[in-house]
Amino acid sequence: MKRRDFVRNTALTALGTSVAAPLSALAENAVTHFESEDLAPAGPEPNGFTLNFLALGDWGRNGECLQLETARQMGDWAKNNPINFILSVGDNFYPKGVVSEQDPLWHYSFENVYTAHSLQADWFAILGNHDYYSDPDAQIRYSKISRRWNMPARYYSKEVALGKDKGKVLFLMIDSQAIVQNHEDQHPEKQLAWIDETLKKASADVKWKIVVGHHPTHTAGPRVSNYDTLAIRKALKPLLEKHKVDVYLSGHEHSVQHLKPEGFTHQFISGAGSELTYITPGIEYSKFGASENGFMYFSVDDKRLNVKVVSVSGKILYNTQLSK
């Protein structure tokens, strides 16, 4: 090897060693420890309320009657607005409920319809009249299979905190079908006694009382004077008034409504998850009604309860607020 080549090669080797060492050290110091949430897109911006949830009823039709489109809009809404959970107010599966926890309708009408990542929250469900035609308890058993479906019993209660020293919301999730049809095997008198006692024993820090049942006590839909409306009103309304329940939330009527009959309790109906029925005009206690596919969005803190009715197209059809 010529002397100049030896000198050049030796110099380059030395230079490479001197540069490589700091680069190697730099690489070792640059090890990262990202968690999935560190790399995920930012979630919805806070809206000033501690508790937010969606309410939907009368939906399970294999995606038909705009069920699928309404589900997609729910997913878009939940992507852009905070939600803690979803309430299903009954008639979860048409035409005759589910026969077991393996019934294909779980996939055709629920799992494969409400697919948005934003809807993979807890669903707290109750039974409707159509859910009674097959095996209502299959919907209870499905709670052990699905990560998001929650129906621990045919009726149950749930308390949700509104933040430190801000109180709670008390939810009573009831089985109105057993009461309306007086299903003796379900002992409706025991359920009514449970409703009375649970509301009576509500802790002092409960700021809002919300009862959720399938049948409305009042409506501006087709069932203004129907047997089931009158039956649940007779059985339930005295308890709602006695314990100053703020909201009775239901479905059954295939529309979205806000009603304020005489007394303390506001009635909201969110039954427009798929097939629609008409609104009866001229009902004096009706504050809002629309026969349009959509859902309700509730936002709650210790002093305010806001309700928005959102259509299948994403339009806010109605916006109201109750205050303490």
From TrEMBL:
<keyword id="KW-0479">Metal-binding</keyword>
<keyword id="KW-0378">Hydrolase</keyword>
<feature type="binding site">
    <location>
        <position position="94"/>
    </location>
    <ligand>
        <name>Fe cation 1</name>
    </ligand>
</feature>
<feature type="signal peptide">
    <location>
        <begin position="1"/>
        <end position="27"/>
    </location>
</feature>
<feature type="binding site">
    <location>
        <position position="91"/>
    </location>
    <ligand>
        <name>Fe cation 2</name>
    </ligand>
</feature>
<dbReference type="InterPro" id="IPR029052">
    <property type="entry name" value="Metallo-depent_PP-like"/>
</dbReference>
<dbReference type="InterPro" id="IPR004843">
    <property type="entry name" value="Calcineurin-like_PHP"/>
</dbReference>
<protein>
    <recommendedName>
        <fullName>acid phosphatase</fullName>
        <ecNumber>3.1.3.2</ecNumber>
    </recommendedName>
</protein>
<dbReference type="Pfam" id="PF00149">
    <property type="entry name" value="Metallophos"/>
</dbReference>
<feature type="binding site">
    <location>
        <position position="214"/>
    </location>
    <ligand>
        <name>Fe cation 2</name>
    </ligand>
</feature>
<feature type="binding site">
    <location>
        <position position="254"/>
    </location>
    <ligand>
        <name>Fe cation 1</name>
    </ligand>
</feature>
<feature type="binding site">
    <location>
        <position position="91"/>
    </location>
    <ligand>
        <name>Fe cation 1</name>
    </ligand>
</feature>
<dbReference type="InterPro" id="IPR024927">
    <property type="entry name" value="Acid_PPase"/>
</dbReference>
<dbReference type="GO" id="GO:0003993">
    <property type="term" value="F:acid phosphatase activity"/>
</dbReference>
<feature type="binding site">
    <location>
        <position position="58"/>
    </location>
    <ligand>
        <name>Fe cation 1</name>
    </ligand>
</feature>
<dbReference type="GO" id="GO:0046872">
    <property type="term" value="F:metal ion binding"/>
</dbReference>
<dbReference type="InterPro" id="IPR051558">
    <property type="entry name" value="Metallophosphoesterase_PAP"/>
</dbReference>
<keyword id="KW-0408">Iron</keyword>
<feature type="binding site">
    <location>
        <position position="252"/>
    </location>
    <ligand>
        <name>Fe cation 2</name>
    </ligand>
</feature>
<feature type="binding site">
    <location>
        <position position="129"/>
    </location>
    <ligand>
        <name>Fe cation 2</name>
    </ligand>
</feature>
<keyword id="KW-0732">Signal</keyword>
<feature type="domain" description="Calcineurin-like phosphoesterase">
    <location>
        <begin position="52"/>
        <end position="255"/>
    </location>
</feature>
